[in-house]
Amino acid sequence: MSNSEPILVCSPRARRITLTVRPSGEVRLTYPRFVSRERALVFYEEKRAWVERAQARARARQRALPTLSEEEQRAEIERLRLMAKRDLPQRIERLAQQAGLRYTKLSIRAARTKWGSCSATNGISLSLFLMQLPEHLRDFVILHELCHTVHHNHSPRFHALLDKLVGGREKELNRELRSYAIR
Fold it and tell me: CA angle 177-101-178, nearest 5°?
């Protein structure tokens, strides 16, 4: 993990400049079309101290992880996949009914960059690595994705709905979730 320059991505979907530090320490700088590459790089320089702290946290997490062989990694993924297939379909169905929200389909993938996502057609994809989270955070991620079936963005209305569904604890749960990394 180095302090190398970020990977620059000019995205037509981006609405603002964002910085992401991956568990590997890789830095991704995403910016909208209407922002110049130079302005995005200025933003990165302004946030460099934050990036370095995030990379240090990522290094600490990596050191804390046991090193598994490729065969052990495959076996662990299959173990998590079986657990996810037993747990997540019933969990999302129960939470959707309780919240009065509807999704079109569920897929479970070995996604390592996101805990979950919701498509424009309200299909929800969940990472099998959710099985490494405590149950209350699994529920939080699922409710987050279910809220996207109503609001396909992160608008104030989206956050108000999610906060309501988690009993006013959205910020607290978000902070707790950020302390976990997909491995």
Answer: 5
